[in-house]
Amino acid sequence: MKRRLAAGTAVSAGLVLSLTGCLGSGGGDDKAGGGKAVVLAAAAVRDTSAKTAQVQSVKGEIQTEVTAPGTSDAVTMHMRMAAKLRPEPAFRIDIDSMNMGGKSMPGQASGMEMVLVGHDIFMKSPMFAQLTHGKPWVRLSTADLGSAVGQNFDKLLQQQKQSDPTQQVDQLTASKDVHEVGKETVNGVQTTHYQGTVSVQEMLAKLPEAQRQSRQESFQKLGVQSMAFDLWVDGQKLPAKIVMRTPDDASTKMNTTVTYTGWNTPVAVTAPPASQVGKMPKLLTQGAPGD
Question: Which Pfam family, giving just one, matches this sequence (predicted)?
Answer without folding.
Answer: DUF6612
